[in-house]
Write a structure and sequence with these properties.
The protein is of the alpha+beta class and 401 residues long. It has helices at residues 9-13, 16-24, 42-49, 77-84, 94-105, 108-112, 115-131, 137-142, 144-154, 164-172, 181-207, 213-219, 229-259, 262-270, 272-286, 318-321, 356-373, and strands at 29-31, 36-39, 54-55, 134-136, 221-222, 225-226, 292-297, 301-303, 306-308, 313-317, 378-379, 398-400. It has a five-stranded mixed sheet. Helix 4 packs across helix 11 and helix 10 packs across helix 11.
């Protein structure tokens, strides 16, 4: 257990050896600093993601007091109002209702018709990187692409897009383990500002509906049910946050991995069209952008003879599950041709990422553009990791072309 230290620079640089140690012991480990049960094996993580005895929230069944938990501080209310009305932190029946209505607006057709736009934006961003002779791949390509795409989907004007990424980063800070008071204050401020902006944009779209996802969310209905304004706001923020964090980190983690495996990068350059689909999946598995997913235990469960009581919290270790040798042959090896790849980087069960198809299109588009326009892309310096565990990524990725 000493090896599992999510606040250690060495661990953050490479958590995978610690996961190997965890998996070699029992299947559930109580981690005292956070009071969570760590679940490292793929079979258990996959099963618990689908187990209705667990939930992302407990408030549909219990009060804070009944569940043995303390209510969040009142000053955090704007963050929790925003967070608690989104798909990520809801359970049935609200989750079922909202996901059904969101799915009416966030359709495969909506995503597919964006593909030419995604390709165009990716190509333009890479062209700018090449024209500059290189730079920070994160700032030049990985970050602006998903921002542009989700903003385009939602119908957010280009002039309004600058604060989106900072708002997203500040809100997502609350998903780390034991966030600080300063992190919480930034998340609350971002929640207030983002909510106010979306309230104004929703009011405008109600007067002047467009062919965009926000208009679709406002209009979505079934059997007389509509999304409330707060549900529309929370859904938009969730789509933006998930789209930003997962895709940005998957892009930079992926290219960092490729640079450290020149044989795999050479194979990808030699045969991009065939390898890009499996490369996207393998890079998502190999260095997982979302390392941990938390769930509350609503009814007692048992793992490996250990009873985990109602009121406990489990930390499902996606990064560990994606390196489980019981599921993945030679899991520490990066293999862009890997066919049997049931990674759980997009979660599973009712909380399977609704934006997974969009993320795959974005990752493939940026990879295709970089391979085509920057065939000699190489690292310019050793990158520095962000001091985050849950959302694993880099501060920057300096490259030369």
């Amino acid at each position: 257990m000493d090896e599992f230290d999510p606040w250690s620079a060495d661990f953050l640089n490479d958590p995978y050896p610690a996961y190997t140690t965890l998996r070699s012991h029992t299947r559930a480990h109580l981690f005292e600093p956070t009071g969570q049960w760590l679940i490292p094996h793929h079979a258990d993580v996959s099963a618990l993601l689908r187990d209705r005895r667990l939930g992302r929230t407990y408030q549909h069944r219990f009060t804070h007091e009944e569940f043995g938990r303390t209510a969040p501080p009142p000053e955090h209310e704007p963050f929790h109002t925003l967070n608690d009305h989104g798909l990520l932190d809801l359970e049935a029946p609200d989750h079922t209702r909202i996901r059904r209505l969101v799915s009416k607006a966030f359709t495969p057709r909506t995503v597919t018709r964006l593909t030419p736009y995604i390709d165009e934006v990716a190509a333009g961003l890479v062209a700018g990187l090449v024209a500059n002779g290189g730079g920070d791949l994160l700032a030049a390509v990985a970050e602006p692409l998903p921002v542009a795409v989700i903003a385009q989907m939602l119908g957010i004007p280009e002039a309004d897009r600058a604060p989106l990424r900072p708002w997203s980063a500040d809100i997502c800070g609350m998903y780390e383990l034991n966030p600080s008071a300063e992190t919480a204050a930034r998340a609350v401020r971002a929640s207030v500002e983002f909510t106010a902006y979306l309230q104004d944009l929703i009011a405008f779209r109600r007067r002047s509906s467009g062919d965009d996802l926000l208009s679709g969310l406002i209009a979505a209905h079934e059997d007389g049910e509509h999304l409330t304004e707060q549900e529309v706001i929370s859904t938009c923020v969730l789509l933006l946050n998930a789209g930003h964090e997962a895709t940005v980190n998957a892009t930079t983690n992926g290219w960092h991995a490729l640079f450290r495996h020149p044989d795999q990068l050479a194979a990808l350059r030699a045969n991009p069209e065939e390898l890009i689909p499996t490369a996207v999946e393998e890079l998502m598995r190999y260095d997982t952008p979302l390392q941990l997913f938390e769930r509350w235990v609503l009814d007692d469960i048992e793992i490996d003879g250990v009873t985990i009581a109602r009121g406990s919290e489990v930390a499902l270790l996606f990064g560990s599950a994606n390196h489980d040798p019981a599921v993945f042959a030679d899991p520490e090896r990066l293999d862009l041709t890997r066919k049997d790849n049931p990674h759980i980087s997009f979660s599973a069960g009712i909380h399977y990422c609704i934006g997974a198809p969009l993320a795959r299109i974005e990752l493939a588009a940026s990879m295709r553009a970089l391979l085509a326009q920057a065939p000699a892309l190489r690292p310019a310096a050793e990158p520095e990791r962000r001091p985050n565990f849950v959302m694993r990524g880099l501060r920057e990725l300096p490259v030369e072309v």
